[in-house]
Amino acid sequence: MIKAAHLGITPRQFSRNALTVVEKLQRQGFEAYIVGGCIRDLLLGKQPKDFDVATNARPEQIQKIFQRQCRLVGRRFRLAHIMFGRDIIEVATFRANHNDARSEHQAKQNDEGMLLRDNVYGTIEQDAERRDFTVNALYYNPQDNTLRDYFNGIEDLKAGKLRLIGDPVTRYQEDPVRMLRSIRFMAKLEMFLEKPSEQPIRELAYLLKNIPPARLFDESLKLLQAGHGVKTYRLLRQYGLFEQLFPSLVSFFTEKGDSFAERMILTALTSTDERIADKLRINPAFLFAAFFWYPLREKVEMLKNEGGLNNHDAYALAGNDVLEAFCLTLAAPRRHTAVIRDIWFLQLQLLKRTGSAPMRTMEHPKFRAAFDLLVMRAEIEGGEIVELAKWWHEYQFSNSEQRHQLVQEQQRLHPKPKKKYFRARKPRHPKSSA
Which of 126, 106, 128 is nearest to 117 (CA)? Predict the structure, then answer.
């Protein structure tokens, strides 16, 4: 046990709502601590995104204390969410080793060691053993301003070292997502993964196939949309994990990493990182529309050449195929896949610069995202796409008269072919033979 003041930690740095939850549980005679990543971030001088609580109160007991303010969630890992308007404090009951389970209702594993259910409750010491990394096994008690550090997590933080608690192979088998968390923390915290925790990742990467696609989609957002996307991408490639998340992109990878698809991935992630740094909004649909643009283009050309389809039909069919393959691994919700389709379809509409087409295209709700993708394509491909991107940039920031002139110029450069009119022939009457 350490005096938190010696490390510059005071109760004022924590969420008032989290402190309220801890205080209320302690008043009812339970142990309760603020736990995990928020303490780690404060010790590193970072602002925590959320504050979690751990307690020896069971989920049903937590619900009884907080009543309508509490919602129990999860079956695999039972949790209580205490709601303060939009702010949610997640409260977990201390976990024990799953080998102590009395029945499958408490804990269950599959043949590869993955935990399917994990609701074996225990003490704070047992709970610390169940945490993934030493730097996350930290417990803060605001009543006496003390920190409990069971596995030298503070020393590891000072050394910049990420270390799994327990046997790394077993811990990765229990929950393969821990491999992705390793990468995320390395990128976010600028820490290195110690050798015993690092070595099994490549050979166990295939275990991610056992994770539900919806959970993997959520994890992919945490990885790629946290402001460290480029660094995370390179680490995922280094450890053979990117292929598990995006198997349909693997065929586009080259030895030098300079294919159009690879350059697009880096360009899109760089843009995302910059937007997050500037506190601008980001949309996962745009990122994935960019990731899969060149696989889509390849599929479109194949359908046009082999199936004789027109451009519009080829895009529709190719879009279905590419998104279906994507969602097999990462189950993106329909609200995102619909936007991805819009961004792709608008790449066709951006080619139309005559008549009323430009104005209709610009009025589309996803025009700006589609234009941003066009600019990225211009940066990667060069050629005619550069001129197209420049034209649309100018069109957006012009007044109505200037826009009319831009369209007129396009119509002059690309006039519509004149329709040929044929005079209907008069029916020939056979000569009467007299």
Answer: 106
